[in-house]
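batch_manifest entry 22 of 60
target: DoxX-like family protein
source organism: Piscibacillus salipiscarius
requested by: lab member K.T.
priority: normal
notes from requester: please return tokens only, no post-processing; we will run our own comparison against the previous entry in this batch. if the run fails, retry once and flag.
--- input ---
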Amino acid sequence: MAKNPIYVEIPIKSEMDKLWRVTQTPDEHEKWDLRFSSITYLPKQDDKPQLFTYKTNIGFGLAIKGWGKSIGTHDADAKDGSKTSSLHFGTKQKLSLIKEGRGYWKYNPQPNGTIQFLTQYQYSTNWGKVGNLIDLFFRPMMGWATALSFDVARRWLETGETPSVQYVRFFSTWLIAILFFIVWTYHGLVPKILFMHPTEVSMTTGALPISESQAIWLNYVVGAGEIIIGLSWLFYPKKEHLLKLQLIVFPLLALSAAIAEPANLIHPFNPLTFNFALVVFSAIGLLVSKDVPTAKNCKRKPD
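--- output ---
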């Protein structure tokens, strides 16, 4: 079955020379493109494609190294002022899922002063049927990484915020989101639903005039609610709403726990210090999560 090529498009407010420089100069390109850790141009021969090598670090000290050929038409006199760069790339490493591919970048000036920057590329895979199966998940990830990288390049040119700062904010936001997913889901699932810890029950009966059996059922409900909140950290797009809510909720939880069971305040990892730490993380998250780059700003299918 034929695989759809990866397509990404984004409008960028920039001069053509600047956009061409940050996308065609290796030292600039590798700053914003998640797909490459380093790009090195080889000496160019007249009337020959620009040859280069690339490396992509994949973790645990491993890296994919490959080759590429690029042909750009920055000086071409297209009637509409557009520019094009074609690309042929590949690697001989069996470790790489991608075997060989071809694509292009296109730079189309628009009447509103922006440049329609787009790419489309296709690649073949290693590892036979296993590689084709893995590619069902890998290909969307490559499209997402391309789109996120394009948005980072756009923000760099339009606002001056460097790619490294953008990626620090992006990955910090998601690390904090994963932290709160684990905290909420764990505290809803383990001490309330799976094991119903006695302390959870005693704090509930201490705070509310209800029986122990009623407190147990209430904790099941609260536990389910905490799991839903935890899952929202993965799927709800506007993380700043959740962070602002937590700046209110965590102090209230600490206060209610202290009122219900004052003796808990002298325990290690008690509700006061635990919730205070979560308040600090929420505040940090609110500071770094504003206007982070996103793949959603890119168009993913051609007209």
